[in-house]
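Q: I'm writing up a methods section and want to include an example of the input and output format. Could you take the sequence below and give the corresponding predicted C-alpha cells, formatted cleanly so I can copy it straight into the document?
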Amino acid sequence: MGLFGDLVDAAGDVAGAVGGAVEDAVEGAVDAVGDAVDGVGAVVEDIADAVEDIAEGALDGLADLLDDAVDAAGDVFEAFGDLAEEAWDHGTDLVDDAVEAIVDAAEAAWEELEQAATAVAEAIVDAAEAAWEALEAAAEDAWEDLSGAVEEAWDRVEAAADSAWTAAGAAYEWALDAAERALEFLGDLGLAVLEVLKELGACLGGIIVHNLAEADNIVFNLGRSIRPVPEEVRTAAEPFLGDIPYHKAFLMEDAHLSGRYYSDTTDAMTFMNPGIPGLDAGYMIYVHDRIDESTENGLGLAIHELTHVRQYRNFVIEDAFACAYGVGFVASGFDYNGIPLEAEAFAVQDRFLAT
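A: Here is the clean output for your methods example:
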C-alpha cells in the first residue's frame, strides 16, 4: 500500500482532528451553560441537564458520522490504491488517473464531513439558544418571587417599626403627663424635688470619682511595700477614735496619690477594701511621703486618715461613704475643707495636736 496507505492514514488523522475540535467546542458550550446555571441556582439545574443531554446526543451522532466518513474514505482509498498498484505495472498514465480519482474522492468526503459538522453545530446552537431562553424565563420568575418576598418582608418591618415607635411615643407622653401631675400635686415641694435630683447627681458623681481614684491608686502602686498601722499610732488614736479596726488598716508609703492630680497639698488618701491580691486588708492608707510615728505631725496625719476608717465603718458600704462625700463637696460650694467628712477628720486631728 505504501504511499496510498499513508494517504489513508493522513485522511483519518484529519477527520480525527476535526472530530476532536468539534468535540472540544461542544464540551466548551456545555461547560458554559453549566456555569451559567450554577450562577442562577438550583431552579435551572434541570434545564442544564436537558441541554447537556442534547449536546451529548449530538456529539455521539457526530462521532458516529465521523467514523462512517473515515471508514468510507478508507474504503475509497483502498479501492483506488489497488487500482493504482495494478495500473502501475501498465504505465504512469493510469497512475495519474488513479491519483486524481483519489483526490476527487477525498474532496467529496471532506465536503460531506463539513456539512455534517455544520449541521451538528447548528443543532447544538439551536438547543443552547432554546435552553438559554428557558433559563432567562426561569431566572425572571425566580427574581420576581424574590422581589415579592423582600417587599413583603420590608412591609412587615415597617409596620413593626411604626408600632414600636407609636408605643414608645405613647410611653413618653404618659411619663410626661405623670411627671406633670406629680409636680402639680407636690406644689411647692417641686423645688425640693429638684434639690433631691441635684443631690442624687452629686451622690453619683462622688461614687464615680471615688471608684476611679481607688482604681488609679491600686494600679500605680503595685509592688510597693506595705506595713500595718504602728502600735504608737494606735495608742495615740484610741482616746480620740475609740475602738476601730486598727488591725485591718495598713499603710503604703512613698505612694502615688490620684488626689495630687488636683492638689499638690494632698498628703494621704484612705480607701476601704482595696482588693490587693494576697492581702486581707479592710482599709488601705496611701501616704505620699512617710508617716513618722515619732513626731506629732506624723501621728496627726495618721489619726486624720484613721478618722476616715471610722467613717467607712459607720457607713458600712464604701459607696455610701463616696455618695456622702460627693454630696458634701457640692453642698460646700466645691470647697475641699468644707466637706463634712473632711471637716470631721481635720477636727479630730486638730484636737490631737492641741493636746
